[in-house]
From TrEMBL:
It comes from Streptomyces sp. R21. The chain crosses the membrane at residues 15-33, 45-70, 82-104, 111-133, 145-167, 174-194, 214-235. It holds the Pfam family MHYT. This is MHYT domain-containing protein. Residues 9-198 form the MHYT domain. Keywords: Membrane, Transmembrane, Transmembrane helix. One of its GO terms (cellular component) is membrane.
Length: 259
């Protein structure tokens, strides 16, 4: 049995990965609210941004956390195409969930289906990301913990969407993002505790990239994107305020011309 360390880089990886999950979730949930305030192409774009934010936030969380994952007795490499696929899958499945929530007729069904989709997205991404691990040995999963991790992901995503779409308010928006962040992180570590590795020591070279070569730069790029997008969303006017400002300006013009 290979001894596994989930925190080989100390507290940095869990804290940073949790932060990324929260930022991605906050941005994604904010965009979902924006989407519901708008329609047409604008709604679609907000939902798309929401999917990319949550999807890449979850992905970045997973791989930053994975940078703290080491196994005694074997190096770890990541299969590049599979890792990229896990990112696309994360965004894709989350998009299915978010679009369901954004276009649903009733809030309740859209939240239920959206939560299911988003939760499954988190899980699909996690296990695809795990399939991208190359090491000297085989990876086994404890089925009960795998099921638990999927349930955590679905319940949490549903809770976050409920707080976002049904109950409104800035404080709750923050709570929703923290809930989703906790959820994604606890799902990750539950899923990681489901793992056991039987080593097959070998000196053969492993295919794939090291975490530092490939994962780290990609996580930095996605992280920067999330922070920039958050700033943009925070600064761009919301639909309602924008319209009322335009209406007020129009009234002022009318008053001036009639004065």
């Amino acid at each position: 049995m290979g001894h596994m360390d989930h925190f080989s880089a100390g507290w940095v990886t869990p804290v940073l990965s949790y932060l990324m999950a929260c930022v991605g979730s906050a941005l994604g949930l904010r965009c979902t609210v924006r989407a519901l305030e708008s329609d047409g192409a604008s709604r679609r774009n907000w939902l798309l941004l929401a999917s990319i934010a949550i999807g890449s936030g979850i992905w970045t969380m997973h791989f930053i956390a994975m940078m703290g994952f080491s196994v005694d007795g074997t190096p770890i490499r990541y299969d590049v195409p599979l890792t990229a696929l896990s990112l696309l899958m994360s965004v894709g499945v989350v998009a299915a969930g978010v679009f369901t929530a954004g276009y649903g007729r009733s809030r309740v069904t859209s939240v239920a289906l959206g939560g299911l989709g988003t939760g499954l997205g988190v899980a699909a991404m996690h296990y695809t990301g795990m399939a991208a691990l190359n090491l000297h040995g085989t990876v086994h999963y404890d089925p009960a913990l795998v099921v638990a991790s999927v349930v955590i992901a679905v319940v949490a995503a549903t809770a976050a969407l409920t707080l976002t779409l049904i109950v409104r308010g800035p404080v709750l928006a923050t709570v929703a993002a923290l809930v989703m962040g906790i959820a994604v992180s606890s799902m990750h570590y539950t899923a990681m505790y489901a793992v056991s590795i039987s080593l097959a020591p070998s000196s053969a070279a492993l295919s794939g990239a090291t975490a530092t070569e490939f994962i780290f730069p990609l996580a930095v790029v996605l992280g920067s994107f999330l922070f920039l997008a958050s700033a943009y969303v925070a600064l761009s006017p919301t639909g309602k305020r924008h319209e009322s400002a335009a209406a007020a300006e129009l009234l002022r013009q009318v008053e001036l011309s009639t004065a």
